[in-house]
Amino acid sequence: VIVLFAWFVFRPDNKTENHNLFNIEMISELTTIECRYHNVAVRDNEGNLLSVGKQYVWFEYDVIVSVGIDINEVQIQEPSSDGIVKIYLPPAKILEAKADKSTISKPVCELGAFTKLTADEERQIINAGTQKLMNDAMTQEIIYQAHNSAKDTIEQYVVNMGKLIGKEYTVEWLESPNDESAEITDRANPTTEQLK
Question: Which residues lie closer than 8 Å to 103 by C-beta, 6 or more apart?
């Protein structure tokens, strides 16, 4: 964050005091948390009485899950005359989950008569396992961590930008995108319902 802040301040096209606080949205990209999970994907089809169509397949692989704030939903109001900057920060969410192809193990297979495992079926099994892991990650502490990280980083950025131009800025968090007043509840610790 310090490196990015220094670049923003001293880059060649930024030699005036006209610092645009709305560029703060790019900071939320820095608060994205990446987690690596080791996952197991299984397909277990019984097949018919003659074992035709039977498939028992086991894959192991890593999934990279990115959690953070959708910067398109961040809303920042211009500073008021008394230095208050009102910001709406949406709840953190899973931005992406993808299988690390380099970690996919050779599948362990038990196939029935006249049954084979196609490349398309392999992809389906892996994608289904990745989707399940992504859904499970939604209930974990990582969502709260990503939200708090974004909030702290953005607030620090606003305060530091104010100091740079000789102003004292205070951040007030809005409860909703259209809210003109400061938030009533603390979104630093959103409830499970708010994160849905």
Answer: 60, 61, 62
* CB-count burial class (<10 Å; 0-12, 13-18, 19+) for 147: buried
DSSP assignment letter at 181: S
- Alpha helices for 45-176 (secondary structure H): 119-137, 142-164
- Separation of alpha carbons 143 and 115, rounded Å: 42
The answer to whether 90 touches 77, Cβ cutoff 8 Å, is no
**52 burial type by CB count under 10 A (0-12 exposed, 13-18 middle, 19+ buried):** exposed
Per residue in 77-121, pLDDT (tens digit) is: 888 999 999 999 888 888 888 999 899 898 888 888 778 888 898
Cα(49)–Cα(8) distance, rounded to whole angstroms?
68
The residues pairing with 191 across neighbouring beta strands, listed in sequence order, are none
Distance of CA 100 to the CA centre of its chain: 17
β-bridge partners, 99 = 63
At residue 172, φ and ψ (nearest 5 deg) are -120, 130
Assess whether pLDDT exceeds 70 at residue 126.
yes
Q: How far apart are CA 72 and CA 119, in angstroms?
A: 36
